[in-house]
């Protein structure tokens, strides 16, 4: 039965790095995703009943949406108030108050006696703990797990919090351990309502990024440092307005197009969090609304980023957001002068150096952490306010178009251009059709064919399979054993006792036992509870596949020695994938999160001092072997359900898959009919016990089923389990390669290369018969290359490459014959002129 899973994550993953399988999502290269977390209506006192998370993967619309909720957390509100008092008092105590002497600031700064360094540090830790407890709550678990399943460990993530709650905006969201687990993720804020603004930027003069820098009231602070940093910016033209009048500032916003608006000076936000005030000179201050039309004009002419390097800017950010300014960077609390200067220095160095806006802010914010000995919580202050419908610009995006123009390609002969254009068009069409999954079945059939052609391998000497066939079942009936399934308690007790004398390292019972041991066999129940070598199986419930109940595990076997038996089959019912780990549904009677095969392999390897761990990319590693996680688009798979931790199953190539390991029947063991040579080699092996009777439902198709005899197209599940165990052990102990595939961009170039080959054949061979033979020979070469790579465990695109090669040939021949098939509207051209005259003739 095919089982599809939405995702997986252990309890450790929810709280950070505590779980064995805490984070298994990998990224072979840096991608970029956007998460928009909408908190909906609610507050910290009553909770948030309708929280949604949208995942945008390099598209203009959400790719996925997950739903959850957040419980009440009134203690966070209390902690913030206490923290804010201590924060303000800490700067007074550390003699950093001049930066905080805001004109008309609405709140009093606590006096020096209120600050305690010990209390402040304790408050910060409590703040962090409470935020993580809240965001790792059971109600939010679904969103947390799904995001971690679909996001790559190293991809760049723009994490946007949508809320209009002014307290939530002041929370240090970066303390959530999610941002520790994803080193390239950065948080931003947004209002719940926003629109996508289409604007036509005015043509700028010059070839630089244009910045309007307002240096406002500098009482008690040194904004000359800000000016110095901006003056050193590469490829930038900065217009400084030093303590300007309102009319002067208004005129500059109207007069010329600007890319970045910068402000340094004093500011604060109103208590409602919807606006604020900036002090542009010693006597004048402005709200954002007083520059409403000028700012709208600047936005329409290309203003993309506002940076307010001043105190308490969240209200300013909201007001700018209401005017549809795409991105704003502000400080969420009053900020010391030294911290404002350091942030600007770090940010502009990273941003102008080519890093994305979010990465530059994260890097600058984290570098402030090194200043927190003198300026507590400095890294908590910078925050992005973002319109989720718009893409944040890079420094290169802000340069005029002339800076981004790619030099034109050198001229090619007309025929060369035709080949180039045809190959690109055909490659795009083929890869587009492939992306839609229309080639997947052909590619899987090619995969099976390549698998069947590989050289025969030997048995795995580490395994022994105890089979239970129809004769064994009849034998138990004749011996009047109490049969409740294919293996009675009496027979199992005898079997385990007899195996004990041969000292196997691991024993796996691949038979469902959803009932307790008969009271007549107390020794069996004790052995199942206490023998650390014994592993049992159960089945996770899968309502979407017609198995809503699953199969419970044996009651006597503890969870740590359980493994799920679930396989993942493709639409043609063939098992090509190996599911290592999943997160069972909460209602599933089987709570095992590791595969039965993985459990046995780990136990075997642990005895040799080899343990499993995870790489920085979140991929499973045993010893020095990394098990590459299958994604929804990997190799020939396109849009496949790759939930859980799946790898491709590299079957051991055998004359018959049932010869994966030596076998002995149940009745032979019970009657002491064991080959002496076999009995000596049982020591330290993995012994698998499973039913092989053809009447069992546990029968599976494999890539070898196509060429198998009609009565052998399916094999018992115990042999597939043996293949999976063998794959893990052979990869770790024998360096037998795991199946791998290229990143998609490499596959595109590979297919394009074969399209070019097809085009060059059509260009150089002018006789139809010769072109046809050359095409056949080239296809044979392509298949041979794919097979050679496959013997080294590489699955590279054969079907798309073959289609691209042939389609480019046909396209060029068709175009050539259409262009010059008739001369004088009557006489057909000679075949030699098909391509030669039509592609190379000059007009």
Question: Briefly, what is this?
Answer:
This protein is of the alpha/beta class. Helix content is 37%, strand content 16%.
Walk me through the structure:
Helix content is 37%, strand content 16%. Helix 24 runs antiparallel to helix 25. Strands 3-2-1-4-5-14-13-12-8-6-7 form an eleven-stranded mixed β-sheet, with helices on both faces. The chain is built from 27 helices and 29 strands. With 843 residues, it is α/β, with parallel strands linked by helices. The longest helix is centred in the last third of the chain and has 24 residues, at 768-791. The two termini are 65 Å apart. A hairpin with a 6-residue loop joins strand 9 (266-269) and strand 10.
Write the layout of secondary structure elements.
Layout: H1 11-14, E1 32-38, E2 48-56, E3 64-70, H2 74-93, H3 117-135, H4 141-150, E4 156-162, H5 166-170, H6 178-181, E5 185-190, E6 209-215, H7 224-231, E7 236-242, H8 246-255, E8 260-264, E9 266-269, E10 276-279, E11 285-287, H9 292-300, E12 305-309, H10 314-322, E13 327-331, H11 337-352, H12 357-367, E14 382-386, H13 395-398, H14 401-404, H15 414-435, H16 440-453, E15 463-468, H17 470-478, H18 489-500, E16 506-510, H19 522-530, E17 534-538, E18 562-564, E19 577-581, H20 596-606, E20 612-614, E21 620-622, E22 625-627, E23 645-648, E24 663-665, H21 666-670, H22 676-681, E25 686-691, E26 699-701, E27 714-716, H23 717-733, H24 744-764, H25 768-791, H26 799-820, E28 822-823, E29 827-828, H27 833-840
Parallel strand pairs: 1-4, 4-5, 5-14, 6-7, 6-8, 8-12, 12-13, 15-24, 15-25, 16-17, 16-25, 17-18
Antiparallel strand pairs: 1-2, 2-3, 9-10, 10-11, 13-14, 19-23, 20-21, 21-22, 26-27, 28-29
